[in-house]
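explain this:

___
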Amino acid sequence: MQSTRYLALAFCLAAAACSRPSKLPTTSNETLKLTRVFLYRNGVGYFERDGHVDGNVLRIKVRKDQVNDLLKSLTVVNRKGGQAVSISMPLDPQTWANAALETLAPGKGNLSEVLDALRGTTVTLSSKDRTIHGRIVMVEEFQNSALDMAKNVVNIQHKDHRVTLMDGGKMDMILLSTVRSLTLEDGDLAMQIHRSLDASAGEGMFQQVDVSIRLAGASSHDLVVSYVAPAPMWKPTYRVVLPKEGKGKALLQGWAVVDNTSGEEWRDIKMGLTSGAPIAFRYDLHTPRDVDRADLTETGVRKKAAVAVGETTYAEEPEPAPPPAPMAAAQGAPAEEAPASRATKDDKEARKKEKKAAEVLGKAASGAARGAGGAPSPAKLAQAAPKPSRAPSPILAPAAEAPPAVDAESLRRSTLAQARAAAISGLTRFDIDQRVTVPDGASTMVAVINQDVEGEETFLFKPGGGGMGYESNPYRVVRFKNSTPFVLESGPIAIYAGGSFVGEGISEAVGAGTSATIPFAVEPGIMVTSVTKQDSDEIRLLKIVRGVLEVESFARKTTTYTVKSQVSRPPFSVLVRHTKAGQNYELVNRTKATEDLPDAYLVPIAVVQGKREGTTTVVEQTPSRYGISIWEGRALPLLEKLLLATNLGPDARKRLEPIVRDRQEIGRIDSKIEELKAQQNELDQRARETRENLKAIQKDKAAGALRAKLGKRLEQFTSDGDKLGREVVELQTKRMEIRIRMEDALQDLDLTAPAPVKK
C-alpha cells in the first residue's frame, strides 16, 4: 500500500506540473510582422500582421488556447491580387495520455483511475513477491476484509483495487496495494505523456498548432493577416485638476494601462483601445465532434423468408422484401473565407516624425519590464513632447507667491496624449497617433486624454451619508462635463487641487457629452437631516359615464431636507441624491435645477450668503384611478364640487344640475328613512318588552290595573310603529320615483370633468 501511494504521488506531481503557470509562445510567424493591436474590455484583442511570403504556403504557429478564436476570425488578404485557397491544421489528438492526464487534474484523480483510463495498454506490474505482464483489462474496487476467529466476525480493513492483466489467453490479477512499480511498455504512450508534461512546464513547443494557409497565384505574396485572440482587458485611470476658484476650467487627463501577456514583444505598433460592452465568448471549432446515428444494420440482417406449407392449390410463394438502400455520407462544404478590408502602408515621413517619441516610450516601457514598474515619468515624456503653444491660464497663476510644483499647467505639459476618437457600431475607439512598444510580460501606460473640461467642486449627500460615523455628512465631489469625444470607462480618478492630491473616486462609464459626479472626500462640517411624511390627497372627479364616476386619488410622499453648516461659508449648495419613491411616483413642482438619475433625483439645496442653513421639500405623488357608483355616499360631494367649478361648460352644467338636485333629494330621503327606521326599531323593542311584562303578570289577579296600563301602552307603541312604517313606505316610493328619473337622465350622460384651475 505504501508503494502505491508513492506511485500515485508521482502521477499527481506530474499533473501539478501541468497546472503551474508558464510562459507560452503566442501566435507567431517570422515572415509576418505585428503591425496593429486593438484591445477590448471583454477579454479579446484584434491583431494584424503583414509581410512578404515566398512560396504557396504560409505557416503560422498558434497556441492551443487561441485556435478556436483564430478559426472564428482569421482573415488573409493578398495585396497583389492572389487569394487564400484553404486553411488547414491538425486535429486535436484524442490519446490515452490526454485521458490519463485528465483524471489527474489538480485536486482529483488517483492511480486506479489512471490505470482504468489506460485499458488495453500493455504494462508490467511488480510487487514484493511477483511480477505480472499484459494488457490492462479492468480495475475493480472492493473491500479488503479479514475473519476474526476469536470473535467469529468479519473486520473490514480498507478499500483496495484488483488489477486484471491479459497476456495471450491468460488473465492474471494483482492487488494494487501490493504494487511497487509500474512500467509502460508502449513507448509512444510514454512519449505522449512526456511531451504533454514538457509543454505544460514551458519546456517544449508541443502546445502549439501549425496552421497552414495555401496561397494561389504568384510565387511571392504581400499578405495582411488579421485575427482575434485572448488578451487582458485594458484598464483606464484618470486625473482631474480642479480650478482654483472651485468652478470653471478643470483639467481632465486619462491613461490606459495595457498588459502584454502574449509571449512576444509588441514593437513599434499602431494601437487602438475600444470602450463599450461588445459580446465575446468561447466556442470550440477545433475539436472534432462525432454525431450519434441510428444503427439500422439489424433491420436487414434479421430479415428472412417464412417457411410455406404446401397446399393443394398453386399459390405463389411471397417474395422477400428488397434490401434497404445504402445511406449516403454527408459531406460538409468548407466555409468560404470572409473578405477583409485592404490594409494600407504607413507613411515614411510620419514614421520619421514619430520616431523620437516612440523611442522615449519604448525605453520607458522597457524599464518597467525590468522592474522599474508603473508608467514613464511625466518629465521624460515632456522632453519628447512638443511644447504647448497656448499660454498658462491666468486663473492658475498666483499673484504674490511662487507657483506650486504640481499645478494644472505643469501636469498638462508633462502629459503627451495624442489620440483620436472613432465611433464604430456603438463603441468608442481610442486610436493612438504615435506608435507604441510594449515589451512581453510588461504593463505600459498610454496617455489618451489631456483636455480642459467644465468642472466644479461641490457637495453631494447620499442616503446613509458618507459612511460609518458620517451618516449625516455629505461628500465633497467634483462635477465635470465630459466634453471630449471619448467614452470614459469606469476606473480610478485622482483629484488634485491647490497643487496637491486631495482625494480619489470612481465612476460608472461616462459617455461623451454627459456629466459625472465623483465623490472624493467627506465633509464633516456640514450636516444633512430629513423628515418624511406619507399621506393621501383628496379624490378628484375625472369623468361620468352612465352613473359611474371615474375618480383619481393620490398617494403622496413628502420629504423635507435641511442642510446645516458648522461655520459661516460663502454661498454654497448641497446636491441631495433623493431615491425615487417608486416607478409610478412623479415630482410635484419640479425645479429646473433638479437632475434625473436611473433610480433617483439630484436635488440642490442652496445656502445663501450670511446663512448657515437651507431647506427644500421634495413632494412625490402617484395617481390611482378607479370607478365608483353615483349611489355611493362619497359620489355626491364630488358632483357638488364639479358644479362649483368655474370652467364647467353651460351645456354640461344644464344637464348636470337636475341630476345633482335629484341625488341630493335622494340623499335627504335616505337620511330621513334611516332616522324613521331607527325610531321604528326603538318602538318595536319597547313593544316586545311590554309584551313580556304582560305575560309575566297574566295570572296575577291583583295586577289588573297594571295589566290595563301596559295594554294601553302596547296599543300606543303599535299605533306609532304602524305610522312610522307607513311614512317609510311613502318615502321609499318617492325615492324610487326620483331614482327612475335620475337613471333616465344618466342613460346618455357622458361628461368629462374639466381640469382643475391652477391657483
About this structure: Residues 122-185 form one domain.
